[in-house]
Amino acid sequence: MTLVQLRHFVVLAETGAFVQASRALFLTQPALTRSIQSLEDELGERLFDRLGRRIALTPFGHEALQRARRLVADAEALKQTGKGLHAGLIGSLRIGLSSGPGALLSTRLMLYMAEHHPRLQLQISRGNTAVLIDALRDQRLDALVVDVRSVRPSADLQIALTFELEAGFLVRPDHPLIGLGRPVRIDEVLAYPVASTPLSDEVARMLIDRYGPQANPDDMVTLRSDETLNIIEVARHSHAIVLTANAAAEGLVPLDMTPALNSTARFGLVTLARRQEAPALRILREQMPGWIAGFLAVTPGTKNTGRQRRPVKTGSGTGLSPAR
Questions:
Q1: pLDDT, tens digit (0-9, with 9 covering 90-100), for 193-214
Q2: Rounded distance, CA 161 to CA 288, Å?
Q3: CATH code for the domain of 14
């Protein structure tokens, strides 16, 4: 068994056809067929069911694919290290960002790489936490920055560089509720459209506890989107009210609520516990604390645990939680 054979297997599984895989690998179809057959002979099990011109992974093939991806990814990381990666100056970095961290970090990360590491290939993938974790486990991403309260407990995940940001109901500065001169009641909020990314059960319980059944997100939230920047843009051009992290909502101001919401969003860096990290990931580890400090500087009262913590054995909501 060789890494070349495993790469052939991974590409064939991902393309789903010998024709496309052969083109991607710059191989002839007979050569690819021999490579896969040789691998199956050594493993003693079929990796694919042949269905005419189509192929499908066998149950054994599905299990073998996860391991093959890990081996191929680890070999690639070792290859990059062996070439003498200069502090991430070359190579690649694949980062997954959920909605809140995406609004906060995407532009900053791309600008930093463009200025300081122009030869490094950066890929940013956006999505909900569950989808991003699947991609991390499949070795399609090197690390995630997500709402850590949405990360389900799992021994194969570890969390570091966690930080908390103040969160609440936010509006544009000339919103009618800003001019009341007193704290705002929930019934006054509900007179306007309320926008949010998907909220977790924990957040729903907190809102109901603070403001009663009328604050149940199923009824209260009228504008839902997986993308924080979308709902913030809506609030900038309308009287809609956004429920999100304050630092992500540039140009918006928090409503003074009664009772106070006293909530935070908690984010962190998630990696695989037993995988060799991409060398370029150190760049993100080094820069994130400074960016976090910048968020805290414009959101007084926000909590920060921005040091790297011990790995947390662990994952879709906004990450809002009562402030401690």
A1: 999 988 877 888 889 999 999 9
A2: 8
A3: 1.10.10.10
Indicate whether 294 belongs to any domain.
no
* Nearest alpha-carbon partner for 136 in 110, 112, 154, 117: 154
Query: Within 13 Å of residue 231, how many CA atoms lie on the same side as its CB?
Result: 30
Global confidence as pTM:
0.67
Q: Inter-axis angle of helices 228-236 and 99-116, to 10 degrees?
A: 100
Spatial neighbors of 296 by CB under 8 A, at least 6 apart, are 163, 165, 302, 304
DSSP 143: E
Question: Strands 92-97 and 143-147: what pairing?
Answer: parallel
In a domain, 257, yes or no: yes
pLDDT tens digits, residue range 233-251? Answer: 999 999 999 999 999 998 9
Instruction: Tell me the chain's radius of gyration from C-alpha atoms.
Output: 23
**Distance separating alpha carbons of residues 292 and 107, to the nearest angstrom:** 14
Cα gap 180→77, rounded to integer Å: 58
Q: Yes or no: say if 245 and 165 are a contact pair by the CB < 8 Å rule.
A: yes
Q: What amino acid occupies position 182?
A: R
Q: From residue 65, how far is each of 52, 99, 266, 273 by CA, in Å?
A: 22, 29, 33, 19
The token pair at 98 is 């959920």
pLDDT digits (tens, 9 = 90+) for 9-43: 999 999 988 989 999 999 999 999 999 999 999 99
Q: Which CATH number covers residue 105? A: 3.40.190.10
- Which residues, including other chains, have CB under 8 Å from residue 246's CB and lie 6 or more apart? 165, 166, 167, 168, 170, 254, 299, 302
3-class DSSP state of 144: strand
Q: Which two tokens stand for residue 209?
A: 């506890």
283: amino acid identity, one letter: I
